[in-house]
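Dear colleagues,

As part of the handover before I leave the project, I'm documenting each prediction I ran so the next person doesn't have to rerun anything. This entry is a single chain, and its sequence is reproduced below.
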Amino acid sequence: MTPRRRPLRRLRTQLMLLYAVPFFVSGTVLLAAALVGTKVSSPAGSVPVGTGPGVAPTTTTQFPFLTWSVCVAVLLLVSVGLGWLVTVRFLRPLRTITATARDISASNLHRRLGPTGRTDEFAELAATLDDLFGRLEAAFASQRRFVANASHELRTPLTAQRAILQVALADPDATVEALRVACGEVLELGATQGHLIEALLTLASGEQGVDRREPFDLADVARRVLSNRPPARSAGVAVEAALGAAPASGDPLLVESLVANLVDNATRYNVAGGRVEVTTSATADGARLSVRNSGPVVQPAEVERLFEPFQQLDGRRVRHGEGHGLGLAIVRAIADAHGARLAAAARPAGGLDIEVTFPRGSTDRLVAAAGGGPGHR
């Protein structure tokens, strides 16, 4: 407890000196000026200095040192006392805020400082801390949900693999073909686990932020992603691309994962004969990527939830062969890491309209690195 109180005591002492020293110095100067001008009479029977025939008498001014010392001592005590009282009263709201904030931990983040009844900087500090506690509570809740869902999704394939192997080993008449089928199912479940772990690692990388930025063009990234995804055409979904130059900067691999997850999500959650529109462009705000798709109708209130990990449109848990429910969560994490603005809206006819806009500063750096001016292509 002692180490925690030392900073407060130092601040209290500093503020006390800040109040007391100027008061003491100014009071001492005024007192000295008043006492220096005090005239003291000479003792009875003494001859005034400078008196005599034809000489005008003069009055001797003596400095009352004892009186001045007593006054200075009293002034010092008054200055320190008043400074201490003002400091204690001034820091009382801060002590209250500190004590309440210290009691708030990961187990009771629902607590808040609440209104302080003041309209000064302390009220602003309390409101800022309340906002911080709210974000921390949401982050802890999201983390708990994520860990619970991730553990479930990882445990489900393991349970299925164990069941398949136990059934195959328990059958004394199992044929080679039956064992091959069992091994194939185990391998398929292992591949599902591998994709899930890869998605979790990508999500974690996106949440860690971008340490080193490189210039790239969103059009080139989108073109590379689309060329590596021919299954969209075989699924009966038409992909239309309008890729204009969209220079930006960041981590090209993470941005490629962002584009790939948007395209995969738009393709998987679509309808037969549907379409996916992918566009990139340079705007006044920066570099913009837009992915639109047809598909089932999404309620506007459900759009935000789809960007949480392991979430699906109808609220069911993600099943085998239907993805892992991490695509849009990865998109949000990577966009936040790059300082990009993510906007998603439900289309009235069905599907989503998602736009990711990278800040203009990224565009400027890429143009400068390429050696081009405003009209550079």
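Residues 346 and 352 are 5 Å apart (CA to CA). Confidence is low (pLDDT under 50) at residues 39-47, 317-321, 362-377.

All the best with the project,
I.
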